């Protein structure tokens, strides 16, 4: 026993002695380099204040940073002082001075909680520090056009850019043309409230996303053989000729053409041009009440056989138009909100349907949804908020899903009144049925614990988010539920942009040309 205690005492003393003489200062520079690379971007700036050696090693360790999403640590409940750093251009300059020459992708959309209007500093910083950028996301800023022009010389290698400009319409138009002449490798282009020439884009373009833009084109533009995605929301200067030009983009797979203005010159005959897009897989045509009719739906359904996702919300369609959807044998996702007069008599014909959102279709009948549930064994989700349906849908769904030979679970989201006890009884009749409803989820959470975990808040929000499990599928914004297709937020945006209160407050902050800490500061930190 004495010998054992002696051995343990010796081992303890050895470990203690080893630890007492070990210091991080004994690590070679390459070890510190690897350690610093695991720190957050913000902390890598802070550790330079420790000593001169750490400052030198830290500055040389940024060669691995080729993609930058945020300069703040990814932590929850960031305090008010730290959150203010997201608008500190001095910190951004320090970061880009260290890693800008290595950056290939810069995404600053997380730096702001809302768009900053009249931004002039950020593009200047980018132009001085980043020379190899291929991806640039400035969608959280509305940039002064003069500042944007200073950034164009470093955009030669860009393949993807997201931005918005503030200034005279002609100046903004010229700036975009200069950008596109400089970037001949452009593949993904997103902007809003600008004048855009289709003829200015290179043949390499694969994706357009234009929000509230004025579209211009020559009579015989290029067909953009590589273009697969086109998003036009609230387009200006749009007419039947524009639709004819789009119909020539034969390789287009995803098209969003939503909320065309009521005073535009788009007719139903012009809409029929879209039926020439034989390779179309996703079509979002919501909010075109005056031009998207049953006849247009017939033409598209008869020719665009590959459509998988379809959004026809806020349009003047009738049962005749809905019946044409049965021709789409690949259709799996259907959103048809706010279709007045549609009763759903032909929904049962959609045998391949997996997700249906028929919210605010006030005339839809319970019995028609019941027939759909009974016949569609692959149906995964039904969202019927704001519909005049009753609990018979849930009863039928419980029996139908219990008989399913596959493992597909049906989720139903509703907002009609029903007791938690009744909901629990129906759910427990079928392991392949989950039910969500306003207030019901919260009541079940407090009053019933025997629902096999089907009323968790996470499930509730997953149901409400309507994620379609499909790449690049835009879900409906919450505002679109209540707003009419004629709603227009452009005037609000532009009026706000012109107010002086949105001037960049950070312009009063001096940006030091030499961001390095002085020797006195380092010594004081030591």
Task: Give a brief rundown of this model.
The protein is an alpha/beta fold and 526 residues long.
Write the CATH fold name of the domain at 77-227: Leucine-rich repeat, LRR (right-handed beta-alpha superhelix)
Strand order of the largest sheet: 1-2-4-6-8-10-12-13-14-15-16-17-18-19-20
Distance between the termini: 49 Å
**Cα-atom Rg, whole angstroms?**
29 Å
Taking pLDDT < 50 over at least 5 consecutive residues as the criterion, the unreliable ranges are 6-20, 72-87, 439-526
Query: Globular, elongated, flat, extended or rod-shaped: what is the shape?
Result: globular
CATH architecture level-2 label of the domain at 77-227: Alpha-Beta Horseshoe
Number of helices: 21
Structural class, by secondary structure, is alpha/beta
Look at the structure and give the CATH class of the domain at 77-227.
Alpha Beta
Compute the number of strand runs: 20
Strand content: 5-15%
Main sheet attributes: strand count, strand direction, barrel closure: 15 strands, parallel
Helix content: 25-40%
The average pLDDT is 76
